[in-house]
Amino acid sequence: MNVRMQVRFEWNNASWQVDLEKGQDISIPLIPGKMTPNCFYAPFFDARPVRSGDFVGSLKEGGPVNFKNLTINPHGNGTHTECVGHILDGPYTINKSLQKFHFTGELISVFPTLMPNGDRVITEESLQLLGLVYPVELLIIRTLPNPPEKPNFTYSGNNPAYFEPAAIQLINDWGVKHLITDLPSVDREVDEGKLTAHHTFWNTNASPSEEKTITELVFVPDDIKDGLYMVNIHIISLETDASPSKIVLYDMHNA
After folding, report:
1. In this structure, is the dihedral angle defined by the CA atoms of residues 81, 171, 232 and 160, taken in order, positive or negative?
2. pLDDT digits over 47-83, tens only?
3. pTM
């Protein structure tokens, strides 16, 4: 049977169509060893076979199955989605915070601004110049330049680009609930633990926004153009502040 997975839906006073067979994955695969990004000096992702007596959980080593322990630091190893529990103590977990998994989202590309101290910063002004075309609840920000080796960068100790708090406040003012970026953090790598951009996004000084999420360390190839997409966020059902995640974009067309 030839079945085409087409979805039609109403959004923003118009009818739209999505082909679920043509998703574009922008998450970075986790590969054991040093072939994935490294941030904040976290240990690299690792996968080792279980060993118990004569049993070894590796087909290559003569075992009956592959049966491995995984060592992952979601924030430091690759694409991950985090909730307010990343910066606040309490009952906040990504599994409780993310209860919807499909969103209308817009992709924009921006050059971080070079500051006098050498930092590269996504500023409120640069985002204002781009703006949003649609009233979306999810925003994907691709930083430029966008070399193909970006998924293998070692960010630790290299002061990668980050967001100024005013830019995050503008994103909040736009009504964005789910922010996705290819940077390792929305805050400066070394900021004395202030994490001002994180706190701004989740409004921790007033009423913390438990349903909002930040996804970091995606990679959006150049052949994916800026514009409107349906976005699917996959996570592991972890009762922790963050989870490795898979982000899939689907082209939206007027039905």
Report:
1. negative
2. 999 999 999 999 999 999 999 999 999 999 999 999 9
3. 0.96
